[in-house]
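User: Hey, quick favor. My workstation is busy. Could you predict this chain's structure for me?
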Amino acid sequence: MFVTSTPPQRGTTVNGPLPDLVYATPYDSSGYATAARRYLRALWKLQHPTAWLPLTVQYDGWLPKERPADGPPELMRLPGDATPDPILLAHCIPHGWAKIGAHRAHRRFIGQTVWEADPIPTRWHHELQAADEIWVPTRWNADVFTASGVTAPVHVVPHIIDESQPGDPPLDLPDDRFVFLTIGTWDWRKRPDLLLHAYLRAFTADDPVLLVIKTGRRILSWTTANETERQTWYQLMQVVRQYRNPAEVMLVTEELTDQQMSGLLRQADCFASLTCVEGWGLGAFDAAAAGVPVIITGYGGQMEWLGHDHPGAVPFTMAAADHQDRTMFEPGMTWAIADVDVAADMMRSVISSSSPIRAAATPLARRLSDTYSEQTIGQLMKALLA
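Assistant: No problem, here it is.
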């Protein structure tokens, strides 16, 4: 077999046949890369012969790059060589799939991706044609793809819970505060400004609460006029300054490892997001799997694992997907705008030990652990790869 119960270290010779699956994934800290590492770990633990092909973003999309010398340890154990005619699986946005396929000989091309609006972008109709079949994480996404006219087979392959050991808590947070946490890029689809408004309507500086916002140093897609406005601290302050006695907010912009992110989730008392839509919602998913209560917009792929009766699902109204990236988000696409006032009420209520949102957290974590484990999803992948 390709691997043994103890994974081979980098540079060692592995007895057995060469890998028959080449898994092409981004090499960064994005949601795509984080989810891909879990898929790879699941295949590796099930002894499925798999080789890793790292990708890096370029003008033409995600394209193959040199195997990094400092790659994640679990990926560096995966050899770069494979059989001459393997299955090629590209886990990234479709922009670049054709060039990934041209880079590596293969007998079957699987494209694994996710989309966060309805319908899919016009350009994807051409870019998706590089794949023989498509994997998406939710039935909601699969329905959007097929309703958009995609004719290739579309399979649902859910994301996997993080089964790695959490690292030490990366932040020194006060013990006397109820900690709300949100994780995500400062992007118009994520609408961190709406979450800030909900939090600051719910609480003042006199309340023992803290909102931790884990994001990047710069906005990803936002209407701005200069370099200063592209800084996330500036966008945060534009909201905070509207309140006379604002509750405490902590902005975290440094890069954290997977283990540190897991440790951060375990410092939270509640995860909150007023995203317009998610194809999956990895940050909220990881929080829920860790037993952290979740408040999130009640529309999108996240409802598939969260459950439509989740007490922390924020009501919404449908609206045009007015994202600044018009190469992807086009006229006619829709998404949800969360009710900020109801979200504020939920944030106030979750502090109570009798909150139904808190009561739902433990059984939800148990269900996610059973349904989305490495073993369960790994076996699904093996069946689809057969």
